[in-house]
Amino acid sequence: MSNLRFFIPLVAAILLTTGCGPLRMTSEEKAAEAARTAAFVKNGLDSRNYRISVTRMYPLRGTSKVLSPPYSLKVEGKKLYSYLPYAGVAYSVPYGGGKALNFDSEISEYYEDLSRADRRTITLSTDNGEDVLIYTIVVFDNGKADIDVRCRNREGIAFSGEIDETYVPDAKN
Asked: With a threshold of 0.85, does the pTM exceed it?
């Protein structure tokens, strides 16, 4: 009986350690995954059809905050869909706070900087009817993204997140 007491945990430990080996990615698999992600990011940015799922916000005052889904910033052609929280000082806004960063509107200017090999910097501006906003979006090849929002009537705010690889743009665009 005492031999069985030591034998069962030993067999269980051997099975667990040998079973976990194939779960690790090889360097070739990692490189293939990185190339697939980079191609997805490039395709979305080239076609101007992408969504960034935002996971953290950085107000100018105070500490950063982790965000729960579904906060996002979506570009579909010439249209911007901003569903982002806001924390900061508002200088001149409608009673009740207005739209803040929750709106959809036409993009008035869209500029891309391709000078760095591992990232693209996109600057776009829009007017949501209450304010003129300038979004500076830095998207890296690995899908990570940083968003900086500057407004005329509010303090600026920054966000971070990543390109949503589950996003499929509508066929109508």
From this structure: no
